[in-house]
Amino acid sequence: MKITFRFLLSFPLLLSGTGLWAANELPVYQDESRPMDERVEDALSRMTTQEKINMIHAQGKFSSPGVPRLGIPDLWMSDGPHGVRAEINWNDWGYSNRTNDSITAFPALTALAATWNPTLSHDYGNALGEEALYREKDVMLGPGVNIYRTPLNGRNFEYMGEDPYLASVLVVPYIKGMQQNGVAASVKHFALNNQELWRGHINVELSDRALHEIYLPAFKSAVVDGDSWTIMGSYNQVRGQHACHNDLLLNKILKGDWGYKGVVVTDWGGAHDTREAALNGLDLEMGSYTNGLTSESAFTTDDYYMAKPYLAMLEKGEVPMSTLDDKARRMLRLNFLTAMKRNKPLGSVATPEHYAVAEAIGNEAVVLLKNDPVSKKSPKLLPLSPDVKSILVVGDNATRDLMKGGGSSELKVKDNYTPLQGLKAIYGDRVKYAQGYRAGRPMYAHVEDVPQAIQDSLREEAVAMARDADVVVFIGGLNKNHLQDCEAGDRVDYGLPFGQPELIEAIKEVNPNIVVVLLSGNAVEMPWAKDVPAIVQGWYLGSMAGKSLANVLSGKANPSGKLPFSFPAKLEDNGAHHFGTISYPGDSIKQEYLEDVLVGYRWHDTKKIPARYPFGHGLSYTTFKYGKPTASAKTIADGESLTITIPVTNSGSVEGKEVVQLYIGDEAASVVRPLKELKGFEKIDLAPGEEKTVCFTVKPDDLKFYDDTTGSWKAEPGKFKAYIGSSSTDIRATVPFELK
Ligand code: BGC
């Protein structure tokens, strides 16, 4: 007889039926060989109402209770989304000051998005999941997929850019990679938290089309395809109701249309009303009354909306008990998948493997925006020649710890490999450094005043040193200070801060061989761009930032990053800003998304307002030739797919990766549609002279828009065009076709 493992597991149960082995019998809810639903129902049937209530709200800053009587463990959470945050005190925002909570910082999510590489996204999620396991976390608060609507949003760096398709394709493998470790992802912030200013109350009004076509798809992919076990509601209101207990978003769309089985967790302090929380799909309340200062002693977690007040409403019959059971069921399932899961790996932190993942993502994230020769006869500045005699590195960001600050995504890193260290490792003492400008200490919620005299002397020093250098590498951009790339506030200025534009111009006057590297999670105004031969977008690349940047600048890695959002020349060129303050930032009570579906490149393209650097743009040290496309048909019937293939050749002299992008445009429609929209991409690796054929399938859904008169997706017959290119504006081939 073949004795299976499953049979052996059930042995105690068989014996227990005889009364022989009752002591070892596992209760159904603890038996991992049983179906999940059975286990959940069993646990639920053993719980008191008070135990269910306990489970659905916080007990400390980052923990919610299990059921001690039943051996169901507490849940532990942590930010998210770029690494595991340092330990925070049980009941206030202070650090626990532990010495074993330093970790790997992975590149920020905008950087991940710039790789256009789903495999790297899976590696990211997995490595972060391993770090979370080591730190004994059950839920990681990320990834974020709010759409990049305006370059002023202080939190864009935590998100995946302006395009719903790109964000959808990249968010799914991150979640799967993480959750395969038994650590839940918490995709956030659902939904429409697209600015930080007034985030706690601003009421977002928008059309159904914009909601479904632009702002929801990445969340839908995260829960439907990625099976994210939790989702975090956002602080703002949507159509007059807070997003954390919003009937439309949570009941109708998330749990209704998308069939979501997971847990809806509030953003910290995002709950505002017990009845709505009970009825409108919220499952776990965190962070209410947590200013840690005044109200903490008066309000405890028992006073949370989903604690005593909810119990009182249940007892009075004002809300049905089924609402609580539904929440408790979801919490139990989450617990069984994470905290209570047996045989989980132990995880690991700051390993060479995790550093290699961070470095690989960094290598593919860096975007070469511009690389022109300084004069007609001179070679391009990048990659920096191995024989360069002297490099002057200028800029605060060359040495700064850019993991500090920024709000909840701040990280305490084990190692911080800075850009200056990266360049020194390759070019040795040919590298000199001048700070050039001072940005002040990382500060959350206020800005440090930096005296003008310091700035003048730093600038003079940098300019003097620049005169004698072969090449100047300026490493500036934004940082994680308040009013920069930082939570709880938006940028107030689209330009570079701390006098950087003037500094760049002054250096350029004495030395035209200048490479500008911008570290930021946002687009910035670049009036100086025409005067500078080489510009690199270097994001926030985490612990291994200096390695990846030096790899790209030296040519060890050939840049292959592509912009996940447009860089408008002027702020007014961005769709959200075109309509004045009611569109952004609103009147403090409400705002209207008047650009509608024309977000990012959809606006630039359709309105013929070119961006300075368009969505999908990114140069390489090699060149790629696109051949003639072929299509499987000229006309397709409703419901049919179309196949388009195109050969791409590396026509330069070094190996390189190209992101081949497919956009689809509806030539004539009964509604305003973007000129074209991203519907496919593939990143290919080509040796010099090598050719590969990329094959795209245009599916029926790729032709549809959301018809808000019927509340369904619709494709209208007529002419369409497929655009294939190296960016949203560098289109190398088009394929017209017709839908019958
Ligand atoms: C942020 C969330 C974060 C939470 C916990 C909130 O302020 O908006 O993204 O996960 O705090 O730190």
Which helices and strands, and how do they pair?
Blueprint: H1 5-17, H2 36-46, H3 49-55, E1 63-64, E2 75-79, H4 109-115, H5 118-134, E3 139-141, H6 164-179, E4 184-190, E5 203-205, H7 208-215, H8 217-225, E6 230-233, E7 237-238, E8 241-242, H9 247-257, E9 263-265, H10 274-279, H11 308-315, H12 321-337, H13 352-365, E10 367-371, E11 391-394, H14 419-427, E12 431-434, H15 452-467, E13 471-477, H16 500-510, E14 514-519, E15 534-537, H17 545-554, H18 575-578, E16 590-592, H19 601-606, E17 624-626, E18 630-631, E19 635-636, E20 642-650, E21 656-666, E22 677-686, E23 691-698, E24 705-707, E25 712-714, E26 718-725, E27 731-739
Parallel strand pairs: 2-3, 3-4, 4-6, 5-7, 5-16, 6-9, 11-12, 11-13, 13-14, 14-15, 19-27
Antiparallel strand pairs: 1-2, 7-8, 10-15, 17-20, 18-20, 20-23, 21-22, 21-26, 24-25, 26-27
Helix pairs in contact: 2-12, 3-12, 4-13, 5-6, 5-13, 6-8, 13-17, 14-17, 15-16
Bound molecules: beta-D-glucopyranose.
